[in-house]
Amino acid sequence: MRLLYSFVWGLSLPFAVFRLWWRGRREPGYRQHIAERLGFFPAYQKQATIWVHAVSAGETRAAEPLIRALLDTYPQHHLLLTHMTATGRETGGKLFADVSSRLTQAFLPYDINWMMRRFLRHYSPRLCILIETEVWPNLIAQCKELQVPVTLVNARLSAKSLNKARRLSALMLPAAHAISAVAAQSNPDAERLRKLGISEPQVTGNMKFDVTPPALMAERGIALRRSFGERQVILCASTRDGEEELILAAFQEQFPLLTEKPLLIITPRHPQRFDQVAGMLEARGISYVRRSSIDHATIAPIAGDVQILLGDTMGEMYMYYAAADVAFVGGSLVPLGGHNLIEACAMGKAVLTGLHTFNFSEITDQAIAVDAALRVDGARSMLREALALLGNDKKRKAMGQHAHAFFLQHQGATARTMAILAPYLS
Length: 426
Description:
Layout: H1 2-23, H2 34-37, E1 49-53, H3 57-73, E2 78-83, H4 86-95, E3 103-107, H5 113-123, E4 127-131, H6 137-145, E5 150-155, H7 159-167, H8 169-177, E6 181-184, H9 187-196, E7 202-203, H10 215-226, E8 233-239, H11 243-254, E9 263-268, H12 274-283, E10 288-290, E11 308-310, H13 317-323, E12 326-329, H14 342-346, E13 350-353, H15 361-369, E14 373-375, H16 379-390, H17 393-409, H18 413-421
Parallel strand pairs: 1-2, 1-4, 2-3, 4-5, 5-6, 6-7, 8-9, 8-12, 9-11, 10-11, 12-13, 13-14
């Protein structure tokens, strides 16, 4: 099965490279370092290396406390951080600029045997640490052949992903069996990982709870909030394709009826959709301002007739949360599985989420149970609940306090994960 998988990868390689070039029209990072994706890398000094693979921006941010703990605990080791997306690499460059002498970034090659073999021989890592859901059959097979232990940390697996993996069991089971250790985010994740064929996954929690909100982002959030004047703020964070249209339709139904009109912030999850959402706003005749047009050093007042701020920047999510009164976390109005509520809880905000949170079911249910979050059944319901919270200071502030307490209560996953990794680095 793996031979067939490799054959299909080989056939699709020209299309994969073309896709990189095509995506590079909007995200120039995809046209950079293409040779790395094909298994060719700059010179690298042979040294004790710990390899962490964080596919995109979200996984890179989640890995931050672990990477810093590894660098602190193992000062004689160098860290190799690999990605698949341009935003992941850009995020890593910003997060770890202060430790760049001890950290090398690269794109992971496509999952073709000879490319993975070249990659492993070039960097000779002592340990492979995969973040969240990255299980690549040839990567793991080549690590096994070259005796590089593979670990999967902050691991999560939805029921949908489990069913998909089971359909490819001849390919995925050998990969799962070859993983040396797994640190799962939650009990449901651990149970699904067992069903995939991973023996003895340990539940360590979600490392994103250990990420410290940057003080600079909080300061920028306060400055941004001042630019809105007296208006209250509803944030729709990490929205996905199909959600903005629902939100804007509900917005245009409900907001004309309000005497005091709050400002709505929309931050699409993926940067390639910034212009698309701007086009939706223009087509609907909604007055808006793009965040990228505002100088964060000298934030001027935003005109009172501006209805929406389009968050078209990366790496500023904590700023948007700091500026908001109520936060809706996207990916949950449509069946995409949702996104985690941790950043909103870390900033002490009342949180709203939709029905579709299967990727983060346990953490979402727990947040709802302690009155840190509310579940809504659609965009209209979301805006109604948000407006109700804006009108109820006591309830909104109580939810924010519960959210921050929930965030603090769940810290410690990084230390538990480090304990699991320690035997492979002794």
